[in-house]
Design brief:
Structural class: alpha/beta
Distance between the termini: 29 Å
Largest sheet: 8 strands, mixed
CATH class: Alpha Beta
Order of helices and strands: EEEHEHEHEHEEEEEHHEH
Number of strands: 12
Length: about 220
């Protein structure tokens, strides 16, 4: 079965406190996005990698590839005005008979085991979403204040989220609504059951400056 990875990297540098988009910030000697791409190449040479970037970042990405002698083959696709449209653009380069992993470009620490679990479960069940249990206590905000939420019934969602290509391509033909916070919510809207698999706790999303510090520390202890 054909395997794809659509890696979406549409962030800016605003929350990181700088002008460089977070996917291009240097982590252990190279941009974050390069680490994310390499994770899928390390998983399998057969994965066709598609990278979705804002149009105004395409030339910069090409320059970075030359600067760092980055040679992992991938298709570059122009993104949209929101993540939903960027994923939709990326899925145009995916055939209907296969499996596609949709991954955040700023999750450079996804493990090989998580990628494997997602692809294997999606092949059996049609989709697979990596999750972890929260470590902190949770509270739900209400109009009267807040109330406790049991961690037993809550999971934190990660990527890659893996789907049968024909199913997710069809789901992305829907009109966008704000409730689409990830790819699983897009598919779920069509009535399809979402299947959960174990993620890896190191698979953090780099959003704030402290996340980059944590990622640098984690890389020192990950084989």
């Amino acid at each position: 079965m054909k395997l794809y990875a659509v890696i979406v990297a549409g962030g800016s540098g605003k929350r990181m406190g700088g002008e460089v988009p977070k996917q291009f910030m240097v982590l252990a000697g190279k941009p974050v996005l390069m680490h994310s791409i390499e994770k899928f190449r390390a998983f399998s040479d057969s994965v066709e990698i598609i990278v979705v970037l804002p149009e105004n970042q395409l030339r910069y990405w090409n320059d970075l590839q030359k600067k760092y002698a980055f040679s992992v083959a991938h298709t570059i696709v122009k993104g949209g005005k929101a993540r939903f449209y960027s994923v939709r653009n990326g899925l145009k380069f995916v055939d209907d008979h296969g499996l596609v992993a949709i991954h955040d470009g700023v999750r450079p620490l996804v493990s090989n085991e998580t990628i494997k679990r997602c692809f294997e479960a999606a092949e059996r069940l049609g989709n697979a979403i990596p999750v972890i249990t929260p470590g902190d206590s949770l509270r739900y905000i209400t109009g009267q204040g807040s109330t406790h939420v049991s961690r037993i019934n809550v999971r934190l969602v990660q990527t890659p989220q893996v789907f049968m290509t024909d199913i997710i391509r069809k789901a992305y033909l829907q009109d966008y609504i704000p409730e689409f916070t990830d790819d699983a919510t897009v598919l779920e809207r069509t009535g399809v059951k979402i299947n959960l698999v174990e993620g890896n706790r190191e698979n953090i999303k780099i959003t704030n400056p402290e996340d980059l510090i944590i990622a640098r520390s984690l890389l020192q202890h990950i084989p």
